[in-house]
Design goal:
The complex is a heterodimer of chains A (771) and B (159). Chain A is of the alpha+beta class and 771 residues long. In chain A, 28% of the residues lie in helices and 25% in strands. Chain A contains 19 helices and 32 strands. In chain A, the strands form nine sheets. Chain A has a seven-stranded mixed β-sheet with strand order 3-7-1-14-11-12-13. A five-stranded mixed β-sheet of chain A has the order 9-18-17-16-10, with helices on both faces. In chain A, helix 16 crosses helix 18. The termini of chain A are far apart. The mean pLDDT of chain A is 96. Chain B has 159 residues and is of the alpha+beta class. Chain B folds into two domains: 75 residues, Ubiquitin-like (UB roll); 73 residues, DNA polymerase, domain 1, CATH 1.10.150. Chain B contains five helices and five strands; from the N terminus they run E-E-H-E-E-E-H-H-H-H. Chain B has a five-stranded mixed β-sheet, covered by helices on one side. In chain B, helix 2 packs across helix 5. Chain B is globular, with a radius of gyration of 15 Å. The model of chain B has no long low-confidence stretch (mean pLDDT 97). Classes of the chains: A alpha+beta (771), B alpha+beta (159). Chains A and B meet through helix 1 and helix 16 of A and helix 2, helix 3, helix 4 and helix 5 of B.
């Protein structure tokens, strides 16, 4: 059900250079980190050393007496505010109140003339704690004698993103549960020709946006204005409006360029804290976290998954069952939605007639988990795509052929009640397999795999925009979508230029200022091209309709007599471009026309997901048996994007996502040892570097114009991450014959698995000799 | 403490504290915000600037150490007529950035490489650039941009 299948593009579907190119290569691009306001003070945060403790007392007098310190804010200084926030569950105090729930939780903030003074004063705050028993894993949080993290009852947030019940705040450590079920799972497993079953672990990871969380707040008696590195300024506005009990019109969020997000800057982070500092200090306050502090702010949910999958005698997958425990950390953040998504994403992209997935996320005394690129999908694609390979091996099928035979088909409603599948997995998998040389001979200790994922995109259709066509024919797009690097400042003008028939260079973007740009729910879930792109397309068309009426007025003819041509109108011999229409209408070379559009859950967007985010990846790896080290020999990505508005940008998203997935597959993992995060710095948290890049890379796009977005586009940029850990695990199995059900596949884990395999082989040889 | 150095070809005299890093002085005192700070522990390369032609991490390099030396930042690459340095142009042409936060440091590191080895091999590029992290691109387009700039600069030097 695509919007339309236009093909004769003038501007769209071309790899035009990035609109933000020049400012970014010259160092002139402005981020919040670069921002200074007049009379601005700086805040630094004191964090809890304990994972779970009562706050007995806080004495801030010595810190407040420190020269250069303006004030110290604690959880006891917030009278007059509603200090608890959260779009899903209002469980998060902007500073710890009565107790701390994880090591690293903000307990107090010092506001001072400069950062160094604020930092120095932190040690003069005396906090007395009474330590409580803590839990660090979902299993510990579920235990009968587990301490309760949240004693108070709290309400569901207004913008939780799903329609089901919220579990949190009901007197247990369960933050959220979700279950899907169809068919008869027990019977299917009984009747199965073959079954695979296993326990899997997907680690906590850190997105490492290179610009750490930063915000500047200016709060006065009437208004709250915040400059932030937030991905979703309108969602943050909602939290701030509730905290300060203000009308929406009194809260303004402004987001300039953002130095990387990948989901980690989704939703509200440090904005309530910096706003409270400004409210107390009665002047603008800037708070910029260090990377170490950012690592104590948000991570991804780690997941323990038990899964089994069954196949019939014809090689058809007939059942899948999973039980998942996710670790959401101390506060819900976006985890309730992550739980729902990871539950759903156990299924796709295969048509499985019998399904039972049960999933719960648990509060623990660890850093709060939230969104991370493709949230919930990578966690369950490691088990899901591992089991596809395991099953294929068990029944003696080629795993690529096995996938082709079972993948959801275009138009198939493989997930009951959801939008029929809008991707072309056969073509995606074929492209990936060809790119990695499927079937060709392999060197010793090399393994080659393909994998895929299709996830129900979390993109919720609530988006509006305004397109201002100026009297000189140039255009300004007013968009609530944030430029995170994904290229919205380039892609949106391409769509407007295509529709209005004006040069791409003459279209500019103003973005993410909630006082100026119309409402857009978020910049996440790969939604911008599909939803904001559609809004820009429709608003451009609405502007054209207005200009047709104006042209009729100018030419003194009936509206029906006006014919739309590229970049203007015609009526008989008379032809006017947009500039002439507007200038003649106002009788001055000035003025403008504003095209508008409102997108909601209706029409072609009425069924969710708005699109299935679909991709295949392929890789060839080699394993050094002496050390267990994996080398990426080849990587291929295939983005099933419907239509790439800017192919180079779409491919860039895929490679970036696959590289993050590769990092998780090979070495990225946040590690807790008791209450402390032991690798909470970039010195210790291993990220992909230049020397890790695969020896060969191929990037492909499949463009069948099968999405609901502009010209058949749909979202991309997450899906190539999702299957990478499974791909690497499967490739290791094929290269050296060991099955590892945990990411990352560090050299140590691979080496240990190889040693275990060797000692088992030796034991069985000895056993044979003995006989 | 008062001293002088050369910044992007022009002399600067300034007064700063002994503990001030070059990144702090560039960003807070001299209002040159092109140099970005991320890890603050010298492992991500975002704050790379050139001192005496060699790449240093401005986040940990004390300003005092730069006294009497020549400092080049990202702001020093564009010609006065607005012409971009071949590396800057190549980064645009190859889509070698997304969010752009690592880009100034990335370009400065690459400049140090090309100043020393005008036509580096792919392995030399990877080895030299390994101290710069990019979280967006997956590095492939950055390698391509450095190769493209090297080629352009070699052709320019012929004419």
């Amino acid at each position: 059900m695509s919007a339309e299948k236009k093909t004769d593009f003038q501007v769209v579907n071309k790899s035009l250079p990035r609109r933000d190119g020049r400012v970014k290569v010259t160092g002139k691009a402005q981020y919040v980190a670069d921002l200074k306001l007049i009379s601005m003070f700086y805040a630094k945060v004191l964090r809890s050393p304990f994972a779970h403790a009562k706050i007995v007392s806080i004495d801030k007098s010595r810190a407040e007496a420190h020269p250069g310190v303006y004030c110290v804010v604690t959880g006891y200084d917030l009278e007059g505010l509603n200090p608890y926030y959260g779009h899903a569950v209002k469980d998060h105090p902007l500073l710890a109140i009565d107790k701390v729930r994880y090591a690293g939780e903000p307990v107090a903030a010092v506001v001072a003339v400069d950062e160094r003074t604020a930092f120095e004063a932190l040690e003069f705050i005396d906090v007395r704690y009474e330590e409580l028993k803590a839990v660090f894993t979902p299993q510990e949080a579920l235990a009968k004698d587990a301490p309760l993290l949240h004693e108070r009852k709290f309400a569901a947030g207004a913008l939780r993103g799903f329609e089901g019940e919220v579990t949190a705040g009901k007197g247990t450590n369960i933050c959220q549960s979700h279950k899907i079920q169809w068919g008869d799972v027990e019977k299917a497993f009984k009747d199965a020709a073959a079954v695979v079953e296993g326990d899997y672990y997907f680690p906590m990871t850190y997105a490492y946006a290179m610009e750490p969380y930063v915000a500047v707040a200016e709060v006065n008696d009437q208004d709250v204005t915040i400059y932030s590195s937030a991905q979703h300024p309108f969602m943050v506005r909602h939290d701030l409006k509730s905290i300060f009990n203000l009308p929406v019109s009194s809260v303004r969020l402004i987001v300039p360029f953002v130095g990387g997000g990948y989901g980690s800057k989704s939703y509200t982070k440090i904005e309530p804290l910096v706003a409270a500092c400004s409210w107390k200090a009665k002047r603008p306050v800037k708070l910029q976290l260090s990377v170490e502090e950012a690592m104590l702010t948000t991570r991804s949910d780690d997941a323990y998954t038990w899964m089994r999958t069954a196949v019939d005698a014809n090689g058809k997958i007939i059942a899948r069952q999973a039980k998942i425990l996710m670790n959401t950390g101390a506060y819900a953040e976006n985890s309730p939605l992550v739980v729902e998504k990871s539950t759903n994403r156990c299924v796709g992209p295969y048509a499985i007639p019998n399904v039972l997935i049960e999933n719960s996320s648990l509060y623990t005394n660890t850093v709060p988990a939230s969104s991370y690129r493709g949230f919930g999908c990578a966690q369950v694609t490691l088990p899901g795509e591992s089991q596809i390979d395991e099953l294929a091996a068990k029944i003696g099928k080629d795993p690529y052929e096995f996938r082709l035979a079972n993948a959801a088909k275009p138009g198939e409603e493989f997930f009951p009640g959801m939008r029929p599948f809008d991707g072309t997995l056969k073509q995606d998998l074929e492209t990936a397999a060809k790119a990695v040389g499927w079937g060709k001979p392999l060197a010793k200790n090399h393994g080659r795999t393909v994998a895929c994922s299709g996830s129900d995109a979390g993109a919720y259709p609530l988006t509006s925009t305004a397109i201002r066509v100026h009297a000189d024919g140039s255009v300004t797009i007013m968009t609530g979508s944030t430029e995170l690097g994904q290229g919205s400042h380039t892609v949106l003008p391409q769509i407007a230029a295509e529709e209005l028939g004006v040069p791409f260079e003459k279209v500019r973007v103003v973005s993410s200022d909630t006082a100026i740009t119309p409402y857009d729910r978020s910049t996440g879930a790969s939604r911008t091209t599909t939803l904001m792109g559609s809004a820009v397309m429709e608003a451009s068309r609405e502007a054209i309709q207005q200009m047709v009426v104006m042209a009729a007025d100018v030419l003194k003819v009936k509206v029906e007599q006006i014919e739309i041509v590229r970049g203007g109108v015609r009526c008989g011999e008379a032809q006017l471009n947009w500039s002439e229409v507007i200038s003649k209408f106002y009788a001055l070379p000035d003025g403008e026309v504003i095209g508008r559009s409102y997108i909601r859950k209706s029409g072609r967007f009425s069924q969710l997901p708005v699109f299935w985010e679909t991709a295949a990846t392929g890789c060839e790896i080699s394993v050094d048996e002496e050390t267990g080290k994996i080398t990426m020999e080849k990587l291929a990505t295939v983005g099933d994007v419907g239509l790439a508005i800017n192919p180079a940008l779409a491919e860039g998203q895929d490679l970036g996502a696959a590289t993050m997935g590769m990092g998780i597959g090979l070495f990225e993992e946040l590690v807790y040892d008791g209450p402390q995060l032991v690798n909470g710095s970039i010195l210790d948290y291993r990220l992909p570097r230049f020397s890790d890049l695969p020896k060969e890379v191929e990037l492909h796009l499949v463009q069948n114009q099968d999405g609901v977005g502009p010209y058949g586009a749909k979202g991309g940029g997450e899906a190539s991450l999702n299957s990478m850990a499974a791909n690497i695990a499967n490739a290791v199995e094929r290269a050296v014959g060991v099955r590892i059900r945990q990411a990352p596949l560090t050299p140590e884990r691979v080496w240990r698995a190889l040693r275990e395999k060797k000692s088992k082989m030796e034991d069985s040889l000895k056993e044979k000799e003995r006989r | 403490m008062k001293f002088q150095f050369t910044l992007n070809g022009k002399p600067v005299a300034l007064d700063c504290e002994a503990a001030d890093t070059l990144a702090e002085v560039l960003r807070n005192q001299l209002n040159l915000n092109g140099t970005k700070v991320s890890c603050e522990v010298q492992v991500c390369g975002a704050c790379t600037v050139l001192v005496g032609g060699a790449p240093v991490s401005a986040c940990t390099y004390l300003t005092y150490e730069a006294r009497g030396k020549s400092v080049t930042t990202i702001e020093g690459l564009e010609k006065p007529d607005g012409t971009l340095h071949p590396l800057q142009q190549a980064f645009i042409d190859e889509f070698a950035f997304q969010c752009g936060y690592c880009t100034p440091g990335m370009i400065m590191s690459a400049k140090a490489l090309l100043d020393e080895i005008p036509r580096p091999t792919r392995d030399q590029i990877i080895h030299h650039m390994d101290g710069n992290i990019c979280r967006c691109t997956g590095y492939v387009p950055i390698v391509a941009a450095i190769e493209r700039a090297a080629k352009v600069m070699a052709e320019e030097s012929k004419t």
